[in-house]
Specification:
single chain, 279 residues, mainly alpha, elongated, ATPase activator activity, HscB_C_sf, J_dom_sf
Amino acid sequence: MLPFNSLRIVCLSRALVHPNWPMSNRQSVYKTVTCSAHFMSISFLKDIWNSNMHLKSLGKERKIIYYSNPVSSHRNYCTGQVQLNCWNCRQPLDTTPAFFCMSCKVVQPPEEGTSYFKIMNCDYTFTLDIHKLQKRYLQLQRSLHPDNFSQKSEKEQEYSESHSALVNKAYQTLLKPLSRGLYMLELEGMHIEEGTDSGADLEFLMELMEINEALDKARTPEEANKIGQDTKRKLAVLTEEIDAALLKGELQAAKALLSQMKYHANIEEKVKEKLSEFM
């Protein structure tokens, strides 16, 4: 009979050889191996990392696990499974992402691969709580702003700058529905740019042309406001449809709906410009 640790290694090997296994099976094998990873040699761990197997857990949480290749530090090694330690006092970090050490109060480096939703403490949903997002943003920027670390060590200044920039990027991405939706598609493995067009059909493009022409011909604030209200209603419907598509995992449908949202969002901006002309 093989030793217990050897059995874990064999299971992992089979998961790598058979990529067509159901993801739930491969994920459970992965968890079994990583939980016992501290029994394995560093050289063996490097072999696993070099396989470049990027496994993604399924389900409502949709957490993504990133690997570093090669393993360069304890912070990069499967942060979802291994306890991280403070770089200054070496005490365990209680939370993830850990912005500060609870023991020595020193700012920590950003954790590689942490999603914007986790950084901003938001639910993984297209219809997230904007008020909560804004509150979290202000809280983090107050505590992590580089000005607070001007008298600290060079390393702390560097980490605060990295955190501040990352928090700002996360906030800006999640704040607007379009960039938020595109980011969610990226988390699901669909790498697209914000300006990517999903190929709108002719009927939809003709409808947009008529709306734009009507807006150009608007001669009163009331006429422009009517177009603006119609656009807001369409954006609200699209928001619900995109949320439903993402929840069902219908990524191509979500991408097409996000393309429509982009056009209507542009019209909404044009309405604001038109209204400013009447002031």
